[in-house]
Amino acid sequence: MQQMLSSWHSRPGSFTANAYHFFTYKVDHVQWASVVWEQWFLPRHNFSLWLAMLGKLRTRDRLQFISTDPLYPLCHNSSESHAHLFFSCAWSSSLWGKARYWLEFHSSMPTLNRVIRVLCNNKKGL
């Protein structure tokens, strides 16, 4: 402990700044952060997209501890999951097709990660 404290004094910068950097939680930056936390989104949309990217939306497949009907209520064809909600459902697939046409994106977007990657690559054009 003494050695760590003395190393903070010997580094460039103030003791307080060195201590702060030592105790600050460091995380890896993810590619999708610039799209998810876009300033023109409504905060609730930022938050929902962030949960979706982490796979943490409260879909019925994740809420199996509650006795509920697992079918997606919009189409009643499959269980409600992130993959079905965003891509497998005929309704959402149609919506993605219209969005891709409107944005003039011709590449395939079968996953949310792929959508975000395409948006990151084309962000300046939007």
Structure description:
- This protein has helices at 2-10, 15-23, 33-36, 43-54, 82-88, 90-103, 112-122.
- The chain is mainly alpha-helical and 126 residues long.
- The longest helix has 14 residues, at 90-103.
- The chain folds into two domains: 1-28, no CATH class; 31-125, no CATH class.
- The chain is built from seven helices and no strands.
- The radius of gyration is 22 Å and the shape is elongated.
- Helix 5 crosses helix 6 (90-103).
Taken together, the total number of domains comes to: 2
By secondary-structure content and strand pairing, the structural class works out as mainly alpha
The separation of the N and C termini measures 51 Å
Q: Output the number of helix runs.
A: 7
- Would you identify the regions where 5 or more consecutive residues have pLDDT less than 50? none
How much strand?
A: under 5%
The profile of the biggest β sheet is:
none
The helix/strand order is HHHHHHH
Gyration radius, in Å: 22 Å
Averaged pLDDT, please?
A: 81
Task: Classify the helix fraction into a percent range.
Answer: 40-55%
Number of strands: 0
Shape: elongated
